[in-house]
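Honest question from a wet-lab person: if I give you the sequences of every part of a complex, can you actually get the arrangement of the whole thing, not just the pieces? Trying it with mine:
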Amino acid sequence: MELISKKELLAQTGISYGQLYRWKRERLIPEEWFIKQSSYTGQETFFPRQQVIDRVQAIMRMKDSHSLEEVAEFLNTQDRFEIDVESALAIEGVQRRVPQLICTLTGRDRFTPAELALVNEICRYADCSGLPCDVFSELLSEMLRLLASNAVYDLICTLFRHSGGYHIVFTKGATAPVFDRGVEVCLSFALGERINFYKARLVAIGGQEKGDQHGNSEN
Amino acid sequence: METLRIDGIRTIDGGEYDRVQVDGIGKCRGNIKTRTIDIDGMFRCEGSVEAEQFDCDGTVKISGNVRAGRIDIDGIMTVTGGTKIESGEIYCDGIIRINGEISADRIEADGCISACEIVGEYIRIHSHGHWLMSFLGFARSKIDLIEATGIELRGVVAGTVNGRNIVIGPGCKIENLDCSGKLRVSPKAQVGTISGNFTKED
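Yes, you can. This is the full assembly:
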């Protein structure tokens, strides 16, 4: 698991100590993400890098238009609200082919943020690797069926290659699985944080009007 | 919800109240959740305390966590175990002792604080070395880690101080300090290593 120090996190995201600790008190950033490790000055605090950056970005997008209690509820509930193709295409970072691909794979015209997060991350990987997305169609179809029956999204999603074929595994917790040399790990991400990332962007699109009415920039 | 008033010596199980008033000697075996809690006598809670307003002019000992909107301590608050105090604001003219973390947006102490960590937005601790504090063995505040956006310290012994704008006043002894904004250090303070991208002020 790649870690980021507290100091680096503040520098990279531009948030203050006050904001970080306020968000910890309000349970917007889980306490278990504050990982203490020994250093020459005593103890230093680190965080799971991608998860905390995604979380901070999601909070930053929402805090000006929502109270901290609303943001906490939004981030910590595993809701299943559904998105249509048009809304998904308006979200920054979603590939153009992804919403329609999900509809084709699921046979539905609306889908959940979890389904969007999974398919978009795999398609982004396919793009970076120069692979056609069709390579993953069957695999994605199967994983989407599994996701539909799973109520918990606090999972690490890992795409790996073994014996010439691609596979996906979902594991619990904050640490990616460790494989032997015969396995090539292609992509690993925290599904829950990716879901919050896309949810926050979706709210930001729909939340522009609310932001004009009450500003919570001190949060 | 009811008001709980303890005038004599009484033990309760815990529960949810509108107001808790302790003028005598009280003991609570469980958790307490209340709108306000006012301690003028002695109170011991074996669970956690959650309140909008927490006032202590007497002595309070809590085994669990403390979570409040505002905490005012003119007496002595002791939180035992590796637990925490979380509040919007904390004002301390008395003594706070915790073997854990104090986290608040605003902490202003003219008394004495002993803690592992004090973190938040703005922290001002001016421990004056009052004769009573010296008698009780609490001349200066002792904290392992202080981290906040704004920090002002006097009479504080700390392992590490990290912040954006920091003022280290007389009587302070700091091992490590990291500042990312403005830094002022009194010539009557001792600071070990200083790091960070800061502007020194006189």
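Two things worth pointing out. The beta strands of chain A are 3-5, 35-39, 42-48, 83-84, 110-111, 155-162, 165-172, 184-190. The first strand of chain A starts at residue 3 and ends at 5.
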